[in-house]
Amino acid sequence: QVQLVESGGGLVQAGGSLRLSCAASGRTFSSVAMGWFRQAPGKEREFVAAIDWSGGSTYYADSVKGRFTISRDNPKNTVYLQMNSLKPEDTAVYYCNANSALRVTSGSYYYAPHGRDHYDYWGQGTQVTVSS
Which of 76, 46, 78, 42 is CA-nearest to residue 64? Predict the structure, then answer.
């Protein structure tokens, strides 16, 4: 059974930092791009950051650029999101995603056409709350 398990969320004051982790089990994701998304109350889920399979290319939403850093440790099958200079508007549930169609370049992310072997896995989410 494939699982993505996020951890590291919590309550932090504005200006503080948190490091989220996404540990995968059940299969290896070392050859696919991974992403972080978030969903605030009453809002749709939105893209936060993505990283290609090697860690050589990353892409960020404008709202987090310069404050968040995505990284991965393929031998550990784990993806991280270091969040610095947190703002109240960063409050949301953060989700890890493994989508075999996801592609990441330094300037964008997109979903490639996919076939029958496509997969799209999500974690259960971890709550991040930033107080003002």
Answer: 46
Express each pLDDT in 39-55 by its tens digit.
Answer: 999 999 999 999 999 99
% the chain with pLDDT above 90 = 90
Q: Report the helix count and the strand count for the chain, using DSSP H and E.
A: 0, 13
Cβ-based neighbour number of residue 124 at 10 Å: 11
Are 23 and 123 in contact, with CB atoms under 8 Å apart?
Answer: no
- Residues 110, 15: Cα–Cα separation, whole Å: 31
- In the three-class reduction of DSSP (H, G, I as helix; E, B as strand; rest coil), residue 109 is classed as strand
Label residue 81 exposed, middle or buried (CB < 10 Å: 0-12, 13-18, 19+): buried
Task: Read off the DSSP letter of residue 88.
Answer: G
Residue-wise over 45-63: b if at least 16 C-beta within 10 A, else e? eebbbbbbbeeebbbbbee
Token duo for residue 20: 């989220």
The CA distances from residue 11 to 3, 45, 57, 131, in Å, are 25, 20, 30, 7
